[in-house]
Structure formats: C-alpha cells, structure tokens
C-alpha cells in the first residue's frame, strides 16, 4: 500500500482514493491479462510483491542478466541505512593502524551503547555486515543479531 500511496501517479496522496483507483486498475488489467508460459520460448522476469520474490525465466545473455540484477536491487520504498565504525580496539589505544586486535574495554562499552541504540530503532529484518576483523565482529556480536562477514569490507593497505 505504501508504494502505491507514495507513487507519482497519485500526487493527492489520499489513501482511500489511491487504493480505490488501484483496485479498479487491476480489474481493467484482468480483462486482457494473459499469463506467461514458462515453457514457451520467452524470456521474462516476474517481480512478486514489490521484490519479495522473483521468477526469472530463460534469461540468457549479459544485458538480460544486468536487467535482472538491477530489478533485484531496486528499492521502491524509503529505507534507512546505518553505517558504523567498530568500537575502539586495543591497537587504537597504542596508535597502531591496521592489524587484527579485539575491542578495548571502551570499545566494548561502545558496542553495548550501539546495541541499545539499534534496539530503540525497532528495525524489522535488520541486516548487519562486518569485515572479517575481530574488532568489527565483536562490535556486531554485541547486537545479538545475525551478521555477515564480507572480505571486501576489510581494511586496505593497513
């Protein structure tokens, strides 16, 4: 519903009018709608529930795969992305850059404060990404949620 109400098709943003019009549009589409046959020799991408699921059929070349990638990564609803550094590390205390040290006591305090902040946000389906370094993993572990480690997030030349 939020996607339709915030659509440029409906500048007045009256939820009731928007939904009525949208449902009327669907009824009109039903008259001419023909389902695509996955066994036919057609390439198509079916986006279900605004990107919740995708059906990709007979995508065979580079351009088609780029279109699939684009559609799978587009977000039509506003969302918040939080970026955060790890808590203070043992190496931070001695001025050492790089390495793979764990969190200092103050870094652990920061991680707990971050946990409190994240809990207050009441984020549904929170995704947390970290590098593969101890200090980032320890910061993420304090959140008590699943996290993914990404090598590409590791420091470069440090």
Automatic annotation (TrEMBL):
GO terms for cellular component: cytosol. Its EC number is 2.7.1.105, 3.1.3.46. CDD domains: HP_PGM_like. Keywords: Acetylation, ATP-binding, Hydrolase, Multifunctional enzyme, Nucleotide-binding, Phosphoprotein, Transferase. It comes from the Eukaryota. GO terms for molecular function: 6-phosphofructo-2-kinase activity; ATP binding; fructose-2,6-bisphosphate 2-phosphatase activity. The keyword Nucleotide-binding applies. Substrate binds at residues 85-92, 135. Synthesis and degradation of fructose 2,6-bisphosphate. In the C-terminal section; belongs to the phosphoglycerate mutase family. Homodimer. Forms a heterodimer with PFKFB3. This is 6-phosphofructo-2-kinase/fructose-2,6-bisphosphatase 2. It comes from Anhinga rufa.
């Amino acid at each position: 519903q939020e996607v339709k109400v915030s659509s440029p098709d409906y500048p007045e943003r009256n939820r009731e009018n928007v939904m009525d019009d949208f449902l009327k549009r669907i009824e009109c589409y039903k008259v001419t709608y023909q389902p695509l046959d996955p066994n036919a020799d057609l390439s198509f991408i079916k986006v279900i529930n605004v990107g919740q699921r995708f059906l990709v059929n007979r995508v065979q070349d580079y351009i088609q795969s780029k279109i699939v990638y684009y559609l799978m990564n587009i977000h039509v609803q506003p969302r918040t992305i939080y970026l955060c550094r790890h808590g203070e590390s043992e190496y931070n205390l001695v001025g050492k850059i790089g390495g793979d040290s764990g969190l200092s006591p103050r870094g652990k305090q920061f991680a707990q404060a971050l946990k409190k902040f994240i809990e207050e946000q009441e984020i549904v389906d929170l995704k947390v990404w970290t590098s593969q370094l101890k200090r980032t993993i320890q910061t993420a572990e304090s959140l008590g949620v699943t996290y993914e480690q990404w090598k590409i997030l590791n420091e470069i030349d440090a």
